[in-house]
Amino acid sequence: MWAIVVHGGAGQITSASREEHEALLEAVKSGAEVLASGGSSLDAVERAVIVMEDSGFFNAGSGSCLNIAGEVEMDAAIMSGGKAGAVACVKRIKNPIRAARKVMELTDHVILSGEFAEKFAVKLGLEISNFITEEKMEKYRKLMEVFRRKEWYYKVNKDLLDRYPDLLHGTVGAVAVDSRRDLAAATSTGGVWLKLPGRIGDTALIGAGTYADSRVALSATGIGEYIIKMGLGTRAGMMAEMGMRADEIARALISKMSSEFGRGIAGVIVLDRDYRMGIDYNTAGMRRGWMRSDMKRPVVIDI
Ligand code: ASP
Asked: Where is the active site (predicted)?
């Protein structure tokens, strides 16, 4: 048996185009193919995330948002079998999740950031790309006008997001469990629009936005600062250790987020070693999809 769940970000999502739907479906299918052919959960989550990084429809890889300096700074992390790797604040790596996996497999560190993380990736032959497009610059200029007029923006908080929902969208993540019951999690993001340069979110932090151990795997999305403070991934691990199921864990985590910080903050996908899944969020929507070996076809929900 095997299972995979992916997300394409939590936020104020009100609609999805046909292409966005297809991209999410493609991500679930490619991860599922890896698992169906006997591949590992680690390969499956990496594959699914690469598809979303490459699609341009999500806030990860080619679709990444811009920070307040008009630059792309991406975070990504991957974890499985007691090993973890991450990159933070990388500007040009085409697939940050590939770089995260290299950190996990080739170094004794967990996170590499900035310039050296890029040099490391280039040295290993990973592709580089420029993700700053005219379309993004257009949105950047519009958002900057608002913030110049109204406030000095670096408070990535809920009130601000309620007013400018466009700032948070489309982080991607995947969790999977394979036929050997090995669990894996992967998450990749451009962060939030107009974040300060050098800001690192929950995605890159093992135990916050990305986590997998022998009982449970989690990928989170939402306002990273709250997810870090709550240590969602580590909490999921502790809840699984106490015997909770994936669905109970997802509900408990989001209910805790709501009671601590209010609604409109975060979403999680969770899988446990018994192939049970949990999905919950307290934002208006969260793009998500899943497939299990006993299902005929994948399910994808766009909002
Ligand atoms: N969690 C991501 C971050 O704060 C953003 C997101 O999930 O959309 O960097």
From this structure: 171
